[in-house]
Amino acid sequence: MRTPGMAVFKHENVEDFYELGEVLGSGQFAIVKRCTEKSTGNAYAAKFIKKRLSRVSRRGVKKEEIEREVGILQQLQHPNIVELHDVYENRTDVVLILELVSGGELFDFLAQKESLSEEEATQFIKQVLDGVQHLHSKKIAHFDLKPENIMLLDNNATLPRIKLIDFGLAHKIQDGADFKNIFGTPEFVAPEIVNYEPLGLEADMWSIGVITYILLSGASPFLGDTKQETLANISAVDYKFDEEFFSNTSELAKNFIRQLLEKDTRKRMTIQDALNHPWIKPVNPRQALVKRLSVINLENFKRQYARRRWKLSFRIVALCNHLTRIMKNQKSQKLPEQDGRDCESDQEEETVKRRPRTRKRSSTS
Ligand code: ATP
């Protein structure tokens, strides 16, 4: 029942202790439902993770991977990171009882705004950095930082609180860097991931660079028409700040992004560097004024974000159809296989349209 060093996964029926409510979201092998603890009346989110039921199967998540996610969540305690309350297990699922994060995704919240200065934008980025600093101080890399995993605790406060979620790919980094066959969402992964090089905390910093680029402009720096093109763009660090999208962006903000989208992991900003960067922490009144006067390209952000949402919905419908087919096949004893957790499905269905490409470079490193 218990792996050494791991939490006890309770084997009682979760529904004896929690009233389950509506579906809040879903992932490749997980479904998340609102729930209420019967003894306290407190609201939580129950993440049902499908277990991989046999060694040969590629469906579901391996038990040791679920234990890793749980083990990592147990080590974390920070206002900007989702909290783990309890863990249950039955034959088919492990159920994580998580802090309820009810404010939706940060990007959805921003897409509803009429205007947004860089100063306001950095108040959110700073919270992301604070959460990541907590992770990195414990030598934990998230490895799947992307807009969908940056949520808001609630969206009523003047400055809503950021919560980082989904630690399914997170790893403890031993001895600085480690070879790992980890793959997040193509658009956001670092060149060392694309090139199967040793991975460390630096990979998260790259993703923060991509997220900031999108937040400020609506455009996505490396997104190509195919997954292969996206990965080639990342490996070649082939991006630029098109005037069309960045005409109102401060040099300070571009410098912040440049220092994160740095191929050489030794030259890339660390979390501490990022927190001390003058765009986040101005060192003189002029820098503070620049941030107040510069605005993010909300018009393009909204346009591209609507496309992104539409494509994600399309992907969920496609996934449902796929699952229906699997269930039908299971009934007739034919079991088609599905990709494991570490590899993201094809990118066709994903994300923001990248800026129009005008040139090709083989490498900038
Ligand atoms: P993926 O396959 O994308 O890696 P996953 O299977 O690991 O996802 P999560 O990303 O953790 O699952 O959760 C899926 C969705 O459920 C999230 O995108 C979010 O909408 C919702 N969700 C997850 N955790 C919470 C929470 N604590 N509170 C509210 N909603 C949540």
From TrEMBL:
One of its GO terms (molecular function) is protein serine/threonine kinase activity. It comes from the Eukaryota. It is an enzyme of class 2 (transferase). Residues 354-365 have a biased composition (Basic residues). Residues 334-344 have a biased composition (Basic and acidic residues). Its EC number is 2.7.11.1. It catalyses: L-seryl-[protein] + ATP = O-phospho-L-seryl-[protein] + ADP + H(+); L-threonyl-[protein] + ATP = O-phospho-L-threonyl-[protein] + ADP + H(+). GO terms for biological process: apoptotic process; intracellular signal transduction; positive regulation of apoptotic process. Signal peptide: none annotated. ATP binds at K51. One of its GO terms (cellular component) is cytoplasm. Residues 18-280 form the Protein kinase domain. Its cofactor is Mg(2+). Keywords: Apoptosis, ATP-binding, Kinase, Nucleotide-binding, Phosphoprotein, Serine/threonine-protein kinase, Transferase. Residues 329-365 are annotated as: Disordered. Belongs to the protein kinase superfamily. CAMK Ser/Thr protein kinase family. DAP kinase subfamily. This is non-specific serine/threonine protein kinase.
